[in-house]
Specification:
The complex is a heterodimer of chains A (144) and B (141). With 144 residues, chain A is mainly alpha-helical. Helices cover 67% and strands 0% of the residues of chain A. Chain B is mainly alpha-helical. Classes of the chains: A mainly alpha (144), B mainly alpha (141).
Chain lengths: 144, 141
């Protein structure tokens, strides 16, 4: 169980390094990117370009395989509908993101610095997820 | 100008590579909000790979903090209350909307998902509006 997940551990390190090298763990870069009417900082644009440049090619190559290397099957989202949850959720996320300049990945990677802001943000974020889970299960129970 | 492009571009490519590897080895989308959401309880109880990734993030963050501490420089001043509000919105919103910058922005766009493209445009626009409003209210960000 542990051995099987060592690659995942390594991929987590790589992703965190990528975020840090790219400057995504600096909230001012995020706010700067969103500040299109003021002092625009294009950094995040280059990060997305780099990431999508790689993954938009590799995704399709990998998808041709019958299965992943260590798991029995691919778990790729299949939904296509544009619903209120998608839009509403994205709006709420963007709101929080624009306030703090943190999103889940950078906040997680920044915990070890022991700076108060990412720790507070991360704790509140998990709280927000917990709230969603409560509300979601309540909704599902009322539907059955 | 060049240095302003090289680091973010390389960092982005490393992110894309990590997402590639997670898909290739585990068949999973590298969406951090989804990975964390699943740790709060899910039907498959597949906590092992999620915990491995979280640990990787912590080790990656720690090692980078040693090698490149300036990567964590934060000049954005926000009160604890505002930070809590932001965190709540991000936690709730990413779970409601099914993803964040990694899940929708990187992985979703790479597989040409209309849902992810729409989500990404939406959260960027929302962020732009928030920053513009906060500039208008209180001066520079």
């Amino acid at each position: 169980m542990i051995k099987k997940n060592i690659p995942a551990f390594i991929f987590g390190i790589l992703f965190a390094w990528g975020l840090g090298i790219a400057g995504m763990t600096q909230p001012q870069k995020i706010i700067g990117f969103l500040d299109i009417f003021g002092n625009w900082d294009p950094t995040l644009l280059w990060v997305m370009v780099g990431a999508i440049l790689v993954h938009s090619v590799t995704f399709w190559m990998i998808k041709r395989r019958p299965s992943p290397i260590l798991s029995p099957k691919f778990l790729i989202p299949t939904r296509t509908e544009l619903d209120a949850k998608l839009i509403g959720g994205a709006m709420l996320f963007g709101l929080g993101w624009g306030i703090a300049g943190y999103c889940p990945g950078p906040a997680l990677a920044s915990l070890v610095t022991l700076n108060a802001t990412p720790i507070i943000f991360f704790a509140a974020m998990m709280g927000g997820m917990g709230l969603f889970k409560l509300q979601d299960s309540r909704t599902k129970r009322n539907q059955t | 100008m060049f240095e302003g492009v090289l680091l973010p571009l390389s960092g982005g490519m490393l992110i894309g590579t990590a997402a590639t590897l997670l898909l290739l080895f585990y068949g999973k989308i590298f969406g951090i909000s989804g990975i964390l959401k699943g740790l709060l309880g899910n039907e498959s109880k597949d906590y092992d790979w999620r915990i491995a990734i979280v640990l990787g993030f912590l080790v990656g963050g720690a090692s980078l903090f040693i090698m490149m501490p300036q990567a964590f420089e934060n000049t954005v001043v926000r009160s604890p209350l505002l930070t809590i509000l932001a965190g709540l919105l991000v936690g709730y919103g990413t779970n409601l909307g099914g993803g964040c910058t990694s899940g929708h922005g990187v992985c979703g766009i790479s597989r040409f998902s209309i849902r992810s493209i729409v989500a990404t445009v939406t959260f960027i626009v929302a962020g732009v509006i928030v920053v513009a409003v906060s500039n208008f209210i209180g001066g520079s960000p």
